[in-house]
Amino acid sequence: MDLKLGHYNKDGIEVVDVEGEIDVYTAPRLRELLIDLVNKKNYQLVVNMEKVEFLDSTGLGVLVGGLKRVRAHDGSLDLVCTQERILKIFRITGLTKVFGIHDSVDEAITARKAEK
Amino acid sequence: MATVEVTFTPLPAHVRTARLVATAVARRSGVDESLLDEVRLAVGEACSRAVEAHQKHCPGQPIRVALTDDGERFEVVVTDAVPADVTLPPEGVPMVAAPAGGNGTAPGAAPGGGAITEAGSAAANGAILQLPAGVGLAVISGLADDFRISPAGDGTSVAMSWKRRSGAA
Known about the structure:
Low-confidence stretches of chain B: 97-115, 117-128
Order of helices and strands of chain B: EHHEEHHEE
Strand content of chain A: 25-35%
Largest sheet of chain A: 5 strands, mixed
Number of domains of chain A: 1
CATH class of chain A: Alpha Beta
Number of strands of chain A: 5
CATH topology of the largest domain in chain B: Heat Shock Protein 90
Radius of gyration of chain B: 17 Å
Helix content of chain B: 25-40%
CATH architecture of chain A: 2-Layer Sandwich
CATH class of the largest domain in chain B: Alpha Beta
Number of helices of chain A: 4
Mean pLDDT of chain A: 96
Distance between the termini of chain B: 17 Å
CATH superfamily of the largest domain in chain B: Histidine kinase-like ATPase, C-terminal domain
Structural class of chain A: alpha/beta
Helix content of chain A: 40-55%
Radius of gyration of chain A: 13 Å
Shape of chain A: globular
Number of helices of chain B: 4
CATH architecture of the largest domain in chain B: 2-Layer Sandwich
CATH topology of chain A: Transcription Regulator spoIIAA
Strand order of the largest sheet of chain A: 1-2-3-4-5
Shape of chain B: globular
Distance between the termini of chain A: 37 Å
Low-confidence stretches of chain A: none
Oligomer: heterodimer
Number of domains of chain B: 2
Largest interface: A-B, 30 and 41 residues
């Protein structure tokens, strides 16, 4: 399945919905979206990966790049993911310690608001 | 002779095809269903690495994926035309961030190494935050039962294998 991207604002946080496969072919589209959002001064991001079917290290690189960009503006990039097969690659690479990973968009937003 | 061979031009779009073929052959070969996601991810990582290397060094040459289910193991070998010393990270450079511990942590991971830092630490203050080189290979080594990388002619082969279910055809 190809990659479908969407985004909306909720409580001042930009939520990015990702559906499909994030790999070497599709990851550039996600990278462009994250860069575009940051360029439009959206520095608090939540990437909802609940409908992601596949994620490889190219996709991880895009997420890390997005995190780097928002942190340059004192922002944040949290993830929503409960799928074990997707979480596994975060564990293997140690990135569970880098990203805030939540069970739902609401939980991610609540946690982010609580940190402010 | 491989059970199935796939040869593709080094374009990112074809990596998905290679993943799909590898997963289908692994299933037919008797690899446990619980391991198929690992096969898919590991083969995708190896092919992505090869595509990236070919696009930089030899975009006109194809990449070869050989899938073999002889004996007790299902083996995948991804062969490219770029020497390993051109594409591998220099010796001593950690391939991944500090390991999370537990099952699946990649060999070669250096505790505290790599450019990735933890949430709330130096990265939060704008320090370098990027994936170290070779993270794809580190992922493969964390997923496959057996993993090796070796010279193959003028290029490099990345071989990985998984156990088949006993009695699988």
